[in-house]
Amino acid sequence: MTTNRSGPSDARLSRRRFLLLTGGAVGAATLARPRPTLAAVPSLALRQVGSQTAAIPLIAGPATVDLAGRRARTWAYNGTVPGPVVRVTAGETLRVKLTNHLEQATSVHWHGIALPNAMDGVPGVTQPGVEPDAEFDYEFVAPDPGTYFFHPHMGMQLDQGLYAPLIVDDPHDPGGYDAEWIIVLDDWTDGIGRRPERILARLQRGMGMGSGSTSEGGMDMGGMDHGDMAAGSLISDVLGGMAGDVAYPLYLLNGRPPKDPETFTASAGQRIRLRIINAGSDTAFRFAVAGHPLTVTHADGYSVVPVTGDAVLLGMGERVDALVTVDDGAHPVIARAEGKGKSARAVLRAGSGSITRWAAPELDRQLLTVADLSPDPAVALATKAPDRTHRLALGGNDMTYRWTINGATYDPAVLYPAALGERVRLVFENTSTMWHPMHLHGHTFAVVRDESPGVRKDTVIVTPGETITVDFDATNPGRWMLHCHNTYHLEAGMMTTVQVA
Ligand code: C2O
Ligand code: CU
User: Fold this and answer.
1) Mean of all residue pLDDT scores within the chain
2) Which atom belonging to ligand 1 lies closest to the Cα atom of 441?
3) At 362, is the secondary structure helix, strand, or coil?
4) Which residue, 85, 126, 419, 453, could crosslink 122 as a Cys pair with Cβ 3.0–4.6 Å?
5) What are phi and psi of 79, to 5 degrees?
């Protein structure tokens, strides 16, 4: 199958193109409908409208993506990278039928959604893996509006093309913007550099930087190391040291490499809601729009007190919604792979003009991080003393490539308990020399600041030497994964389970 490399955000796709992208397999009932509360939403969306309609078909299978002329064999959902945008209105039932056309078992995890445990998509924990040629029906109510995404919870599949946005619309969205664009960021090696499994194997053999990189445009012939960056060269101040383990050959914005950027078109003066998703495996992105301040309105789907800055940082698994008011002309949209010397990019165009310099000085001005965010009072957790505290020491290093929680790699028998209804405190203490974006399934915690519950998140960056405390109400029964969202760290053990019973 040849994949159309179009991103999810082109609001002007023709119906013909839409049918082409979805292979015509999608019933009319699941096509996007114009929504009264929004002036424009992307038309390339599979919207669930009411539970009586057919389930949205989602096929995980081999695909070929065109990366500015380089064809890369990979695995993708419905043949596109990112996969199709799935949309549902909060409180409504989402039904998705997953068909596995891969050569190994898979699953779909709905990252950030407070869904019933059996729908959480963790093979061996919440369901059996979906075997090749088998199907699985996911069906759940998406209770909370926001920007989410979905991906497998299986091996290195997330570092291939298997990821897509999940947008839960707010039936009471106050609006205040003219259009929205979905921006999915990713670090890419599959099909053009080393395969993710090989990178992991090299890292575990202590071969240092498991670079997916070969010479630009070259194919990985196996064992060729030119293009690797020297160990220790991927450095970021804001991440407190080493930025990552993998120097990727490419960084993608909506599936497109820098040489073939997507163009977002608007009229000067329009306000655009950006829904930015970091679907990468080993890369934090620093995002900015040249010449435009960003006003962050949501973090990990939940509203925050709006705060304006020049750039925003996203670890793997994190999402940010931000408003920009568009200026006349053509402007670079840049997602810098933090500490890795390369970027993903797109064009913001209002009126005429062309981009002469791919730069955004905003990237090095006021950078918004979790420390700058506080919750919208409407979604803040009530102040309450924790009923129970779990301390989680994050350990490991690049030599042994064993990444641990309290000294242990993943063991399904280890459960951190919580009783239903308790206020639970997790204290992440990073004793390693690398940062970790820590993610909890099934709940949205509050990052504790000055002893009170702050911004709501499901994924939070913990830098080396740092201690981050989060509180959550254990309202969702089941076994929930708690892990680092670095795909390599996760595979190398940095995962455990919280049991709410
Ligand atoms: Cu997106 Cu277990 O995570
Ligand atoms: Cu990690």
Assistant:
1) 88
2) 2
3) helix
4) 126
5) 80, 5
The vertex-292 CA angle with 288 and 298, nearest 5°, equals 65
Distance (Å) from CA 41 to ligand 2 centroid: 34
CA distance 319 to 323: 14
Nearest CA to ligand 1 atom 3: 111
Average pLDDT over residues 392-421: 96
The DSSP H or E segment spanning 198 is helix 196-204
* CB-defined site of ligand 1, < 6 Å: 109, 111, 151, 153, 317, 439, 441, 481, 483, 485
Burial 96-130, CB ≥16 within 10 A → b, else e: bebbbebeebbbbbbbbbbbebebbbbbebbbebb
| Of residues 361 and 15, more confidently modeled | 361
Q: pLDDT digits over 84-141, tens only?
A: 999 999 999 999 999 999 999 999 999 999 999 999 999 999 999 999 999 999 999 9
Question: What percent of the chain shows pLDDT beyond 70?
Answer: 85
Q: Which residues contact 322 (CB under 8 A, 6 or more apart)?
A: 273, 274, 276, 294, 295, 296, 297, 312
Gap from CA of 441 to ligand 1 centroid (Å): 7
Work out the pLDDT band at 222, boundaries 50, 70, 90: very low
Distance between Cα 497 and ligand 1 center (Å):
12
Tell me whether the omega of the peptide bond preceding residue 82 falls within 30 degrees of 0, making it cis: yes
Classify strands 93-100 and 135-141 as parallel, antiparallel or unpaired.
antiparallel
Nearest atom in ligand 1 to the alpha carbon of residue 483 is 2
Tens-digit pLDDT profile for residues 15-61:
222 322 332 233 222 333 333 233 333 445 677 666 557 899 999 99
Write the secondary structure of 101-115 as one string of H (helix), E (strand) and C (coil): CCCCCECCEEECCCC
Look at residue 193 and tell me whether its pLDDT is greater than 60.
yes
Residue 304 bridge partners (DSSP)? 375
